Amino acid sequence: MNMSMSRRGLLALAVGLGVSGWGLPAGAADVIRIGAPLSTTGPASFLGEPEKKVLEMYVEQINKEGGVLGRKLELIVYDDGGQAEKAVGNVKRLIQNDNVDVLIGGTTTATTMAMVPLIERGEVPFISLAGAIVVVEPVKKWVFKVSHNDRMAAEKVLADMRKRGITKAAIISEDAGFGKSGHDETLKVAKDIGVEIIADEIYSSKDPDVTAQLTKIKNTPGVQAVFNFGFGQGPAIVTKNYRQIGITVPLYQSHGVASKEFIRLAGDAAEGVKLPASGLVVADQLAATDPQKPVVTLFSKTYQAKAGTDPSTFAGHAYDALQIVMAAVNRAKSTDKAKVRDEIEKTSGYVGTGGIVSMTPADHLGLSLRAFHMVEAKAGAWSLVD
């Protein structure tokens, strides 16, 4: 696919996504600076690297078409390596030295939450790409997010268990950030859904083996399924060890590994693993009537042509964040930070790769549970379950 869109093509895409035309007045002002504090190296690089690629790809495209409000975009990316302390330094530099107009990033929950106090004090609109619900609950004035949250993932997984007659389950989770938040949310919603958590184990993202924790789960009478909450290599290790010690009940993962990279890391052990994911990972399997179908299909083809690989949901989060921010700038007719913040909060009916987004002052995510699909690893790919 030719990566260079025509002006008509880009505007048609914007209309199809529920984004108004970019608007290109004469007399262009200074560049619009987009700060992107990401984790492009380290344990979260499989999230941060595709996020960076997408931002670079679409900033380039938008600039080729004349920019936004007649102004070119300047993308400033800093890598934190997944380290919260470094993320704080990066966002301070972006706000104070680079004077960015908006921020898109925060690859992980830990780095996002470390940056939030500075962002709130600096009063810069920020769309996080991280997964935990704590990013936007309670609501923070300048902070938004586009990725499905951990509570939604817990609800989707436990509902699937319940539908299959599973009433007793075990949870194993990473001991910090996303894993800890997901663990806590799972325990909160399990009772309401009707699934009893009868075994609860923790591991570190640095653990090379979790056989001991899984053996405890295996030896717990009555366990009918296991749910793992984590991201990076940890869930792949859990999956391999799971098969190695012969646990036969169903294994569920969270949306933190909703990419083919997880299948690659886990190998044959991934077969049969289920998890909640956006429609992007099964774009070709969505119904023709699904409003996301044209969006995720086009994005997938574009990303494949540019990056030479299938897009992950994390790549999609960066795309959605950029589209929402640029539409807000366009509606605000300026980069005044307060006006852009207000327009982001008014986002309504945006059809993106993660779902249909409608934000409010009380909801800085704007996704419903319908944005999730249950998928299953089959023969090295994700297959739509519902």
Automatic annotation (TrEMBL):
Record keywords: Amino-acid transport, Signal, Transport
GO biological process terms held by the UniProt record: amino acid transport
Ranges where the Leucine-binding protein domain occurs: 32-366
UniProt keyword DNA damage present: no
InterPro entries per UniProt: BCAA_transport, Leu-bd, Leu_Ile_Val-bd, Peripla_BP_I, TAT_signal
Family under the similarity heading: Belongs to the leucine-binding protein family.
Name of the protein in its database record: ABC-type branched-chain amino acid transport system protein
Species: Paramagnetospirillum caucaseum
